[in-house]
Amino acid sequence: MESRFDLMANGVGAKIGKRFFNVSLAIQQSTLPRTVQDLVMMRASQINGCGYCLDAHAKEAAAAGETAVRLALVAAWRESTVFTEAERAALALAEEGSRLADAHEGVSDATWALVREHYDDDQIAALVYLVAMINAANRLGVIVRSKGGSYEPGVFAGLEN
């Protein structure tokens, strides 16, 4: 399957993409730990089947020092011992927030209570926006069939304006 469309090569797509990136940049600059951000983006991308996003976030996490074992176990985080309780709460929120059609209640009260236990209000705001933004990015990638495998870490550095 070939990629259908390069959103960033289109004038309107690039204009919208820059604003989309700036929302993601605000999340990145929050106090939500970068490790948690990477894990959440990987898990949502796995669930949504976005090869490009999974490639990008796995490589960025590795470049930031994340271990190969933890990266390999993100999909099986419940059956793993390598994630903290705070990371587990964020991964649960990522899953429930990504699988809205699969659960009538959306994010469960139990998951929300775990998130409240481990994160402050600013971090929760960033985490909620992060789940929404990575799901949107996944949908963009899947719709236009962006392929994973060729991402180079740091490619988006310097796009902040």
TrEMBL record:
Domain of life of the organism encoding this protein: Bacteria
Start and end residues of each Carboxymuconolactone decarboxylase-like domain: 19-96
GO function terms (MF aspect): peroxiredoxin activity
Keywords, in A-Z order: Oxidoreductase, Peroxidase
Gene3D superfamilies: AhpD-like
UniProt xrefs under InterPro entries: AhpD-like, AhpD_core, CMD-like
Pfam families: CMD
Keyword Oxidoreductase among UniProt keywords: yes
NCBIfam families found in the cross-reference section: ahpD_dom
Protein's recorded name: Alkylhydroperoxidase AhpD family core domain protein
Phylogenetic lineage: Bacteria, Bacillati, Actinomycetota, Actinomycetes, Streptosporangiales
